[in-house]
Amino acid sequence: MGRRLAAAVHVQHPTSREWIVLEPGDEPGDDLAAEITNPDAWEDDEPSPDPEEAEPDDEAQPFGFTGPPPQPEAEAAPETEPAQPTPRRRRKTADPDA
Question: How confident is the model at residue 24 (pLDDT cuts 50, 70, 90)?
């Protein structure tokens, strides 16, 4: 028995190059399954627990996020540099012919 899709996928047939839409629950053949590279498109092999029996996951991430939630950065005091004196410019010498 082949693997089942958990999401609809658009895949190009490897020999005819025709675009095919596969629906959730479909079990594509080995040639089409090799073209589906997204692991999230496939159903889990193990049965999922009933929603009533499942314990809530306190560390569940919002959809699309896989890492830990960002922590607010502590505000550091701005580093103050000593004030540098502005460089003096040379004055133009007076034109003696004027």
Answer: very high
User: Phi, psi at residue 9, to the nearest 5°?
Assistant: -130, 150
pLDDT in tens, 35-69: 999 999 999 875 555 555 555 555 555 555 666 66
What are the backbone angles phi and psi of residue 21, rounded to the nearest 5°?
A: -105, 120
CB-based contacts of 14: which residues, under 8 Å, 6+ apart?
Answer: 31, 32, 34, 35
For the entire predicted model, the pTM comes to 0.43
Structure tokens given for 25? 């629950």
Q: Cα dihedral sign for 62, 3, 32, 25?
A: negative
Under 8 Å between Cβ of 5 and 26: yes
User: Phi first, then psi: what are they for 19, rounded to 5°?
Assistant: -80, 135
Phi/psi for 3 (5° steps) reads -80, 150
Q: Residues near 42 by Cβ (< 8 Å), separated by ≥ 6? A: 3, 4, 5, 6, 36
